[in-house]
Fold these 2 entries.
Entry 1:
Amino acid sequence: MCTFSFCSALSRLLTSLQQANELPSTDEELGFLSDLLQSKELHALVNVHNKIITNGASDKFFPMLSTSVNVMYDVLEVIAVRTHISDDCKELFYLLQKPHVQGLLCAHDAVAQKDYYPHLPEIPIEVDEDEETIKIVQLVKSNEPLGATIKTEETSGKIVIARVMHGGAADRSGLIHVGDEVVEVNGINVEGKTPADVLSILQNSEGTITFKLVPANGKSTIRESRVRVRAHFDYAAISDPYIPCKEAGLDFCKGEVLHIVSQDDAYWWQARKEGDRNMRAGLIPSRALQERRIILERTFDKDKENAENDDFDREHIATYEEVAKLYPRPGIYRPIVLIGSPGVGRNELKRRLIDTDPEKYKTPIPYTSRAMKPGEVNAKEYFFVTREQMEEDIEAGKFIEFGEYKGNLYGTSADSVKSIVNSGHVCILNPHYQALKMLRTPQLKPYIIYIKPPPLDVLKQTRTALNAKSTFDVNSSRGFTDEEFSDMIKSAERIEFLYEHLFDEQIINADLALAFGQLLASANRLETEPLWVPASWVQ
Ligand SMILES: Nc1ncnc2c1ncn2[C@@H]1O[C@H](COP(=O)(O)OP(=O)(O)OP(=O)(O)O)[C@@H](O)[C@H]1O
């Protein structure tokens, strides 16, 4: 790289321009070029460029981190709910949101990640046109993996760098790029060898590893994407037979939020766990790949079993959901939706939460087509409407749930939920799980808590101890039967299978006091902490 002589190269070019009388250009073009070469702006840019290159080469200026933008977002998140603490906090909160401060941090990261343009040619001044340029890269072997994968290029049979993992040793060196051809490793020619052979050379080397590489044409710089997703499946690289390199895999569990740093490869994305300080990204299956696997799995399962399970089909294939943080909005609270199998205890939990502060927590008043009984007041226990009116509104999709009991219609309207939210209260609902699709909208932004029954023996024991009343038989006040307990668990399995990807949280309702404590903590968290929601709710 001819970096140090860049300024002198500029002046030499300028002098030769002034002497060049025979160039086939007009005076106007020469004048323009000469003005450009003498302009203050270009000189300032060259200076900046030279500084970056010289300082970048020195260990003294090694960046402390290359993701200050992420740190800025983390800090924003922490102080967003604490601006009342002090004026300094408030000032920092506003400062960090200023475009020029964010621009500065972005520029810092671009420099730290060596993501700056233009790339000066790495070709030495004396180039033999017929000879391929070779670069020699030395890395010191440590416990950390190299952070790059290799493959055999189909057409040429050569070993090439398939991918460079974000933040890994190869990426940080800035010297190894996707498409570079590997010619030698530690003096051993790799021609005709398989990637596995090369891997074993690497594994058996100690100390410094020397690569002889033919640089790829059109080197690509890796820019980090800002996409965050919530995973809807568990992943363990060790048991994935198709991952190109198990060591490079990133394991995760259902529900975890991942920062997708690169989606360049159609099948293998690079990701980090959100909040993980480890800068090295790992490989995870892309959405397309995972969807394909799920479809295949389901076809296989269907073939194995019979048509009996048809109604258990889930039309939605849950792999990753793009998410973003939603900051609490004072005076507008997200509705809390309790989902679970009949009898699991949602009413009990809802009632207890409302009892803590009836002025704050409200539940929608249901509609009914049944006649008002003496002593009843409209809009107290129910909104009383005609059957025709209710049927019309159901048809128009105005009810989040409805049903018929003893010839009368009952239901909860979406407008009732909206009006509770708009009046600054916390709406708490325990609808049938089928209502979830209608409720989970960008307008309502519900927080969905799944109330899960404990294992059968604990379920029986806890309900018997508190003399729980069965909800399966409205006409008699008795405890749950063994069959009802089993049905509760079966129904829970079905709900989880169908809707687990929509749950924000799960509470196991074993010990009632503990379960309620967890619900109360979640309700408080909703008001104070930024939480992940589908990205489309935030835009
Ligand atoms: N953790 C628990 N331990 C013991 N009893 C419980 C527990 N949770 C709930 N119960 C009791 O179980 C019974 C049924 O609870 P609840 O009415 O809340 O169920 P539900 O989920 O609302 O049912 P449904 O949807 O059928 O109306 C009640 O008597 C309640 O007090």
Entry 2:
Amino acid sequence: MGFQTLDDLTVAGRAVGVRVDINSPLGENAELADDARLRAHVDTLSELLERGGRVAILAHQGRPGGDAFEGLASHATRLDELLDAPVDFTDTTFSTAAREAIDDLPNGQAILLENTRFYSEEYMEFEPQRAARTHLVGRLAPHLDAFVNDAFAAAHRSQPSLVGFAHALPSYAGRIMEREIEVLGNVQSTPTPRAYVIGGAKIPDSMTIIRHSLDQGLADEILTTGLVANVFLLAAGHDLGDGSADVVYERGHWEQIDRAADLLESYPEKIHLPTDVAIERQNRRVEIGVEDLPPAGDEAVMDIGTDTVETYSDILATVGTTILNGPAGVFEESTFETGTRKLFDVVSDSGFSIVGGGDTSAAVRRFDITGFDHISTGGGAALRMLTGEPLPAIEALEA
Ligand SMILES: Nc1ncnc2c1ncn2[C@@H]1O[C@H](COP(=O)(O)OP(=O)(O)O)[C@@H](O)[C@H]1O
Ligand SMILES: O=C(OP(=O)(O)O)[C@H](O)COP(=O)(O)O
């Protein structure tokens, strides 16, 4: 690995800035609605605190102008509950008060600084050298001895707190970052044959993953589900009816049908399409074979069908590794959760299994499926990694 880890860091008595990604869904009163990302960072934070570090935690929440753009006070309260050591909070990020609070931190104690994105520069993207000259990094770095980046889920952003500290201070990957890079960055070393189960609604990203994994010889089988499968069915000449076509069109993915058609032409044996699908008819789930498409009126394809789950399960029983991204259907609606629940269950039992994607992880939690070997904390970051694109925050650690 081209970067240093916590194993290389002398911690006791030193002020360590730790960038985490605890960007989380919030409830109606801006309270935390899901603490999964906070729990994921417990290993890194506990280790630094137990080793006597003075830990200043940096994080963002939401995007300027968005509903989830809130302060981090409730995140601090939850971290304080999750960790054995005290976690304080300061409602500024790099003011004199925040810097004094860092200077005054006793060994083995932490402070969470306010949402980094409350400061305009943090929502801009810079080269690391330039990011190191932003006010946030410039004012905090002199109060820190080292920087740990554990925010894998934000590693595709080259924002100051993610790439600037790495230029200004000795830098280390946290335990999440280390594990994500080890697994997602080494897909080529996992047991073969490999299946990629690709669903969900991020069609351009999915097409890029499929193209990359086939061209690089990483994937032996591509099992399409979700809206991705709908685009492939359209590319294969099926008429999905106005309901599904409208969804693809409204989301601006019409041109992706050509990419799907090219992939089908290049890899006809490796790309699998659903043989049956579930549609909504009079508020009920009805499964039909793809030969019986299109459905009537504006009925839309909302899930894969039972035969498809069985066929895909037979393929998954023969592979060494499965990489899963994207729900198989509109899993948020109980009528259409079946494909996702059953297929995810099969994947969790098959060979070595890697799961990436925000909604995908939410589905895993919702259906309480255990047994996956790696569930990525990242959505967009995991996708970038699976498409083979470099991630700026990881590159900054390696520089
Ligand atoms: N057939 C379908 N039609 C419309 N939306 C779908 C379909 N299948 C899955 N989806 C939607 O895809 C979304 C998740 O996709 P995506 O955001 O790409 O996943 P992830 O965040 O895991 O990468 C869910 O909201 C789900 O309802
Ligand atoms: O939640 C995140 O990414 P994700 O939505 O891809 O899982 C990260 O915190 C990055 O947030 P951003 O996409 O607002 O930069």
